[in-house]
Design a protein that fits this description.
The protein has helices at about 5-10, 20-30, 50-60, 75-85, 105-115, 130-135, 160-165, 185-200, 225-230, 255-270, 275-285, 290-310, 335-345, 370-385, and strands at about 35, 95-100, 120-125, 140-145, 170-175, 200-205, 230-235, 250-255, 325-330, 350, 350, 365. The radius of gyration is 21 Å and the shape is globular. With about 375 residues, the protein is of the alpha/beta class. Helix 4 runs parallel beside helix 11. The N and C termini lie far apart (about 50 Å). The strands form 3 sheets. A 7-stranded mixed sheet has the order 2-8-7-6-5-3-4, with helices on both faces. Strands 9-12-11 form a 3-stranded antiparallel sheet. Strands 1-10 form a two-stranded parallel ribbon. It has 2 domains: about 5-45 and about 290-385, Aspartate Aminotransferase, domain 1, CATH 3.90.1150.10; about 50-285, 3-Layer(aba) Sandwich (Aspartate Aminotransferase, domain 2). The chain contains 14 helices and 12 strands. Bound molecules: pyridoxal-5'-phosphate. Pyridoxal-5'-phosphate binds near residues 40 and 174.
């Protein structure tokens, strides 16, 4: 039967890096000692107390059935306690918190619940790809907001095209930021919420890296004036507790926005395994010490990487948050040319900045998801290769 890809699928940007992927695969196939600093996937195991909680939960037969639509009360209550302890924010576990199957699916699905075809969504660029694909799949128009070094990798809200702004329904904000490692001050976040309110936008804050910071802890939207009127946050246990493979997170915020997300999700999935929700409640209630240790580990790795790169003559700067380092490409090479050189000459995998959007050209991203020793070795090889 003849068929074609849907227009939605066709309207996604083309995949630019198949050549690089081929080179990577060839190196692995040839048995080379490749150091992978490409993916934001923690190398360390999930802490033992969480694995133990999962083992215990799995033996409870009530968790073997379809999950409750609104999520396990113990998990939602643990999230509410976390907000109280962490930001002194009070949320109603029944209506203002909703479990998700990793924050990626929720980020992707959310526009379907609040944006109409032909409307627009403001998206940071360079940025996490599902902001864009979720918008395109909702038949809406992505409006890119460049993140530039001279603005501290914050979008210039005053520069958004007025015509497109009038069509916009939703604005994505992501601090601590992937890929730049930047943070936003409380004042900037307040200004951004004010901007959202003034223009009738939903303020969607992706907080996946909110526990990976090295200076001031990041702001929570619900600490801000008007934050609960227009705001929704997307959280993840993936990076905080080395749980990327477990697929769990949550959305929190304005109860009407949560209800809209829940309505889309109840059509698309049947919730997350309740044993995992139970183990995640234990992670949130008992995990502050562990997430601090993980944070300190990434800080040491960051300092090792930046110190070595500065010695090698790169303009590397210690980014204040996330386990990413966003560094200008030295000399006149493009991002792709530079990361190809690192791949071929140093057998080190990194990501070209333009993979996250056109404003990322001239940068490369390193994920500090290898041990300090391997990072040191990667830096030595890079220094020799450039
Ligand atoms: C900015 C950002 N948001 C959300 C996610 C999704 O995390 P998860 O789906 O594992 O919760 C990621 C993952 O890399 C990310 O970088």
């Amino acid at each position: 039967m003849p068929w074609e890809k849907s227009s939605r699928l066709k309207s996604l940007p083309p995949y630019l890096f198949s050549e690089i992927d081929k080179k990577k695969k060839a190196l692995f196939a040839a048995g080379k000692d490749v150091i992978n600093l490409g993916v934001g996937d923690p190398d360390q195991p999930t802490p033992k107390f969480i694995r133990d909680a999962m083992r215990e939960a799995i033996d409870n037969p009530t968790f073997h059935r379809y999950p409750l639509d609104e999520g396990l009360p113990e998990y939602r209550e643990a999230i509410a306690r976390y907000y109280k302890r962490r930001w002194n924010v009070t949320l109603d576990p029944a209506t203002e918190i909703y479990p998700v199957i990793g924050s990626k699916e929720a980020v992707f699905h959310f526009p379907l619940s609040v944006v109409n075809p032909g409307e627009a969504v403001l998206i940071p660029e360079p940025g996490y790809p599902p902001y864009r694909s979720g918008t395109v799949f909702a038949d809406a128009t992505p409006v890119l907001m460049p993140l530039r070094k001279e603005n501290g990798f914050l979008p210039d809200l005053g520069a958004v095209d007025k015509k497109l702004l009038s069509k916009a329904r939703l604005m994505w904000v992501n601090y601590p930021n992937n890929p730049t490692g930047a943070v936003a001050s409380k004042q900037w976040m307040q200004d951004a919420v004010n901007f959202a309110q003034k223009h009738g936008l939903i303020f969607a804050s992706d907080s996946a890296y909110c526990e990976t910071y090295y200076e001031e802890p990041p702001t929570c939207v619900f600490q801000l004036d008007g934050g609960k009127d227009c705001g929704i946050e997307f959280h993840s246990l993936s990076k905080t507790f080395n749980m990327t493979g477990w697929r769990i997170g949550w959305a929190a915020g304005n109860k009407d926005l949560i209800a809209a997300l829940a309505a889309i999700k109840s059509n698309a999935d049947s919730g997350q395994f309740m044993a995992l929700q139970k183990a995640s409640a234990v992670a949130l209630d008992q995990g502050d010490e562990e997430s601090k240790k993980i944070r300190e580990m990434y800080k040491r790795r960051r300092d090792t990487f930046v110190g070595a790169m500065q010695k090698a003559g790169l303009q590397a700067e210690k980014m204040p948050a996330t386990f990413y380092q966003w560094t200008p490409v030295p000399g006149k090479r493009t991002s792709v040319e530079f990361i190809t050189l690192l791949l071929e000459k140093a057998n080190v995998v990194t990501t070209p900045g333009n993979g996250f959007g056109p404003s990322g050209e001239g940068y490369f991203r390193v994920a500090l998801t290898q041990t300090e020793e391997r990072i040191r070795e990667a830096c030595e090889r890079i220094a020799k290769a450039i």
